[in-house]
Each structure stands twice: as structure tokens, then as C-alpha cells.
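INTERNAL AUDIT FORM
Audit reference: QA-55
Scope: verify that the stored structure record matches its stored sequence.
Auditor: D.O.
Record contents follow.
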Amino acid sequence: MTGESAVHRTELDQPILAAVDGSASSYQAAAWAAVEAALHRRPLHILTSVAIPTGFGPGALLTEDDTESLRRSGERIVTEATSVARTAAPGADLAITTEVTFELIPATLIERSAHARMLVVGSRGVGAFQRGLLGSVSTAVTHHAHCPVAVIHGMSAIDAVSAMRPVLVGVEGSANSVPAVEIAFEEASRRKVDLIALHAWSDTSGIDLPVAGRDAAHDIAEALLSESLAGFGERYPDVAVHRITVADRPVRALLDQSGTAQLVVVGSHGRGGFSSMLLGSTSNSLLHSVEVPMIVVRLH
């Protein structure tokens, strides 16, 4: 289907958009995206780019045969990804469309994200042109996409054992984390699993607080977490919530807890520990360190 027809959709038909490049990581992304689309009853659109980056040798002098060869390579990739998606969501009434574009992938995905329910990418690519494709793209789109971005790593966590594990959400306490909390509750509800809500706080002054001070800080953190979750229990009564407050750096706390989760959900900016975590170099560390799928939700 053409790019123009792919983006003109009503809100109810907004697809799950999966970017693939022929790498194992991207096929894991296609598998996870298929399950996500089936859970949300959304169509799945699989896209690959065969564009040659500017400055890569004589890339601007492609012949018609070169162009056709690239197109066939792209068609093979989306066909394989479609097969992976069908296998990951057997029996689902899942509408899948595919697209091969000659446009550079970062700008294309950011543009298409304005018309998607969620954008799904792998954490690393492969090949001469794709080597940096998904690795760098996952960082770019999590900062600039217009919809939530799911980054899939070495495992898609859609096997029977992983599917029983809870969803983990990082709660930093400001209004900016509300969209992430809401998506986390919805994901837990649709997956029929528990939700772990984690708020990490740490004293960065270098001063060792006395016991009374640490207790007071812990009480404040507990109150902040409760306030951040207020109202969601009534909206999602089927979701059992486990609240965790910990005096630790947010990244380390989430990494530690992610080992027992099937999915991690975080907001992309806010204040306090999660602000620095998600806007600086630590953001990339988390994106490429968490082994399970991770959804990054930006506040627009």
C-alpha cells in the first residue's frame, strides 16, 4: 500500500506500526507488535526502508536495476516479517499491511507516528546499511515520536511463561507520568496480569540522612506514589497493583525489577530522578539495557 493511503486513518483504525530491517531484533519487534495489535484489536502495518543513507558512496547514482533490487529486498523483508507476525498471533483476526519505502527511516517513522496507535522498533539492526538503523532509530523516535514507542530487545516476551509476568511502570510523580501509568494499566488489563508501580527516590546531595530523615522521605515517596495511582484502581478493577518505593536511582531500580516483568513502561520526561533518566545519556542506557520490551510514552 502507498504511504499516503497508510496514514489517512480514523482514530479507531490507527495501526500498530512496526519497523523492520531484516534483523532478528526487528522480527522480534514484528512478533511483539502482532500480539499488541491483536490485544488492542488494531491493524498492524509493517514498514521497511531501503533508502541508502546520504554520503554512502555513489548512493545517489542508482540505476533502475539497483532500485528494483532494493525494492525486491524490501519486499522480502516485509514478507518474512508478516510470516513472523502471523505465527506470533495465531488465530487472531489481524489485518496486516506492508510497505517498502525509499525514504530515510527516522523522519519517516516520526512522521507516521502521528497517525499510529504505537510505534514498535527493535533495539539493533544488521547489515551494511541497516547496522545503525534500529539502534539509532530507537533512540531518535523515543524522543520525537508523536505516539508511544515500544523498543523490543533480544526477546519479545510473548511466550507462555513471560506472558504470565506483570507489567512494570516507572512512576516519577508529576503529571508527566500520567500517560505512562494509564498505558501500563491498560496493558496489564488486556494481558490479564498484575501491575508493579515503582517509584524510586534518592538523595543526590551526598549527605547521609539520619534515620528520621530517611523515614520522612520514604513517607513522602509513598504518598506521591499513591497520589499518582489515584483513580486508576476504579477504572481498572481487574488489575492487581503492587506498589514499590525504593531509595535508589530510578534506572537501577527499574533494571533490577524488570527481571520479573514482561513489559516496562516509562514516561519520557518529567521532574526529579526520572527526568534526568529519560532525557540524558541514562535514557539510552535504559533503552538498551532492559532485556524485556519497553514502552516509552512522551507527553505532548
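Auditor finding: record pair retrieved intact. Residues 1-9, 126-134, 205-209, 270-282 have pLDDT under 50 and may be disordered.
Action required: none
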